[in-house]
């Protein structure tokens, strides 16, 4: 075990004073932008100087398993920027890394210099790698590290195309050139580069990886000795603590607070259970996920489902081993859903997405809201430009709006509802939290 920070400070006061001077210097340099965009992570008592991150590029390869062994032995998390072409050859390695708590991010498919590719070429490199990681059963962290660090800046072509695909471009700030250095050089160069928020570039996918792996235990020891802990990158590219149950892809989501509330209440484990490091806020909600989230929310907050109106149908496309079977059955028994093929009621289509209009109607029933029947003589107020009165979901949309549960789809004006758009997991979190907010 490492000695406590207090023990270290007593034993080595000059080092502590030097560190204090360094922290002050960093505090001055930081606001001037001399340290790049990554702010130092908050320090905790176990990590008085904050967090640093190990990142590994160009894998998965024959040496990746040895890297995972060292990290596992020291209980240190890392972020792997993988090549899609290699993920296709070693999907099990990537899956294992994710299961051990490491992050998986995108380093392109074939390691080209992106600035030399066409827009379509850049898109293909990012997309194929994203698909390969997902095919391995892992949700990628939406970060793109361009090979050779070659990009054209935050406003440039690479960043814009990456952004269109949901990815953010990140690089590093400590580069020991481990792909061509000795073990001693690698360790010394990393030690010299340690600073709060340091993102250390290493390579598990090159032929020199054995020298890097030999340096890893020393690198970890040096950082711990200097009061740093190891974190992982989050979706902003910042170094954060690797806490189980903390979603790393919601930092920029407008639905963050609602998602965190559902997670803290144990209602969601995110989109990659049982790891729970992702919520996938921009992914579509499936009808199955909707059932589980809405039933879980009502149960947790002591709200009951409507009384049963009908005998529950049993859907031929919802197996008893489905993760959502119990919740779907509850909704069916309560008469909330008759499936996706009314009036037959034979199928629920658990993998289908929900539109915002469909969600409004389901939620209005679940929450037992007062939904006035259409009345031609007294047309209801038109609350959204794109929801004409007397259309099939208009009353429910109006009722949810009046209950403060949904807003529009074009904030801050919210003049439109976008009834045909699919609901994202983030939006559903906000709807549910608003639905139970006032008891
Ligand atoms: Ni690379």
- Which range does the strand content fall in? 5-15%
Number of helices: 15
Order of helices and strands: HHEHEHHEHEHEHEHEEHHHHHH
Radius of gyration: 25 Å
Q: Outline, from the CA principal axes? A: elongated
Bound molecules: nickel (II) ion
Low-confidence stretches: 1-44
Helix amount: 25-40%
Quaternary state of this entry equals single chain
Q: Structural class given helices, strands, pairing?
A: alpha/beta
Number of strands: 8
Q: How can the largest sheet be summarized? A: 6 strands, mixed
The first-to-last residue Cα distance is 47 Å
Overall pLDDT confidence: 86
Can you walk me through this structure?
This protein is of the alpha/beta class and 439 residues long. The chain has 15 helices and 8 strands. Strands 1, 2, 3, 6, 7 and 8 form a 6-stranded mixed sheet that branches. β1, α3 and β2 form a beta-alpha-beta unit. The longest helix has 17 residues. The protein is elongated. The N terminus is likely disordered.
């Amino acid at each position: 075990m490492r000695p406590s920070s207090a023990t270290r400070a007593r034993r080595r006061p000059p080092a502590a004073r030097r560190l204090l001077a360094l922290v002050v210097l960093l505090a001055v340099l930081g606001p001037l932008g001399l340290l790049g965009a990554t702010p130092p992570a908050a320090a905790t008592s176990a990590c008085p100087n904050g967090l640093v991150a190990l990142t590994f590029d160009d894998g998965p390869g024959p040496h990746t398993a040895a890297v995972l062994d060292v990290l596992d032995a020291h209980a240190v998390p890392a972020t792997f920027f993988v090549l899609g072409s290699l993920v296709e050859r070693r999907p099990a390695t990537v899956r294992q890394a994710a299961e051990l708590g490491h992050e998986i991010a995108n380093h392109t498919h074939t390691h080209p210099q992106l600035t030399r590719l066409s827009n379509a070429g850049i898109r293909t490199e990012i997309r194929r790698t994203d698909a390969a990681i997902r095919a391995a059963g892992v949700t990628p962290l939406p970060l793109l590290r361009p090979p050779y660090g070659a990009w054209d800046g935050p406003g440039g072509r690479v960043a814009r195309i990456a952004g269109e695909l949901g990815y953010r471009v990140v690089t590093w700030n400590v580069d020991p050139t481990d792909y061509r250095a000795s073990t001693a050089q690698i360790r010394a160069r990393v030690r010299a580069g340690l600073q709060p928020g340091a993102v250390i570039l290493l390579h598990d996918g090159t032929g020199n990886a054995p020298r890097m792996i030999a340096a890893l235990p020393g690198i970890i020891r040096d950082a711990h000795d200097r009061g740093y802990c190891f974190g992982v990158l989050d979706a902003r590219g910042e170094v954060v603590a690797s806490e189980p149950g903390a979603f790393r892809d919601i930092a920029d989501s407008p639905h963050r607070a609602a998602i965190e509330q559902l997670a803290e209440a144990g209602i969601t484990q995110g989109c990659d259970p049982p790891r729970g490091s992702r919520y996938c806020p921009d992914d579509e909600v499936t009808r199955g996920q909707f059932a589980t989230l809405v039933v879980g929310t009502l149960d947790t907050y002591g709200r009951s489902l409507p009384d049963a109106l009908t005998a529950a149908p049993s859907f031929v496309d919802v197996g008893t081993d489905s993760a959502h079977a119990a919740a779907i059955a509850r909704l069916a028994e309560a008469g909330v859903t008759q499936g996706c093929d009314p009036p037959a009621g034979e199928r629920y289509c658990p993998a289908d997405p929900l539109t915002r209009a469909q969600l409004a109607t389901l939620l209005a029933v679940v929450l037992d809201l007062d939904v006035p029947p259409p009345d031609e003589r007294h047309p209801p107020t038109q609350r959204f430009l794109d929801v004409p009165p007397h259309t099939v979901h208009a009353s429910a949309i109006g009722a949810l709006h009046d209950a403060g549960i949904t807003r529009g789809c074009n904030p801050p004006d919210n003049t439109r509802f976008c009834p045909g758009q699919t609901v994202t997991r983030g939006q559903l979190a906000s709807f549910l939290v608003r639905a139970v907010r006032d008891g």
